[in-house]
Amino acid sequence: MAARRKDSSPRVLAILNGKGGVGKTTTAVNLAAILSESYSVLLVDADPQASANWWVSHNAQPMTFDITQETDATLLGKLKKVDDYSLIVVDMPPALTSATLAAVVPVADYILLPTLPAPMDLSALINTIKTAIAPAGMDYRVLFTKVDSRRLAEAAEAQETLNSLAIPVCETVIRTYKAHERAALEGVPITQWRGANVKEAKADYYRVAEEVQQDWSQS
């Protein structure tokens, strides 16, 4: 496992978007699995819908990370005091006015914002960043998800739009594959699933993990 940080507290990675249906939980579960190859990882399902917890609960295979369901804002505000892990990934609820957001953002070291590349989704995301993320001053990056492989140009244009606004965005995009849905139904992260297009689906998230860790190495 990776060495503990100098301040001995875990790194907190929050997966956040004010809108649902953007691949937030898929991103949280898959990154928790991939990053657990280098860190001791706790995945915190802070969404009352408990999608991540449901995903993992019907998995017959052992996970490489731990998971807990926690929606109490007071306890979420104390994540940095959890000393059993070197990395805590938080699957946030899709609500910008929640007490959960107010509790987690101040203690997060890094925020990843999954979003669709469509104009309306992009507009909502930019508003999220301006109102809730940028003022907090922590590192963050936008991740385009559910990208149709036949419409990669649209995602590239969306990346250029964010770059022009000085908003950090992942070079990698998460392409749409049935593999992601099948993995969730079977209760496994993409790293453990076996089936069509798994190589491509897995590669996308590994590249995202590399980009995030490169940011960490520079912070």
How would you briefly describe this protein structure?
This protein has 219 residues and is an alpha/beta fold.
Describe this structure in words.
With 219 residues, this protein is an alpha/beta fold. It has one domain (11-218): P-loop containing nucleotide triphosphate hydrolases (Rossmann fold), CATH 3.40.50. It contains eight helices and seven strands; from the N terminus they run βαβαβαβαβαβαβαα. It has a seven-stranded parallel beta sheet, with helices on both faces. Helix 1 packs across helix 2 (51-57). The mean pLDDT is 91.
Radius of gyration: 16 Å
Encode the helix/strand succession as letters: EHEHEHEHEHEHEHH
**Biggest β-sheet: count, sense, barrel?**
7 strands, parallel
According to CATH, the homologous superfamily is P-loop containing nucleotide triphosphate hydrolases
Q: Using the coordinates shown, work out and report the CATH topology.
A: Rossmann fold
Based on CA inertia axes, which overall geometry fits?
A: globular
How many separate helices? 8
State the share of residues found in helices, binned by percent. 25-40%
Q: How far is the N terminus from the C terminus?
A: 20 Å
Residue stretches low in confidence (pLDDT < 50, at least 5 long) are none
How many beta-strand segments? Answer: 7
Number of domains: 1
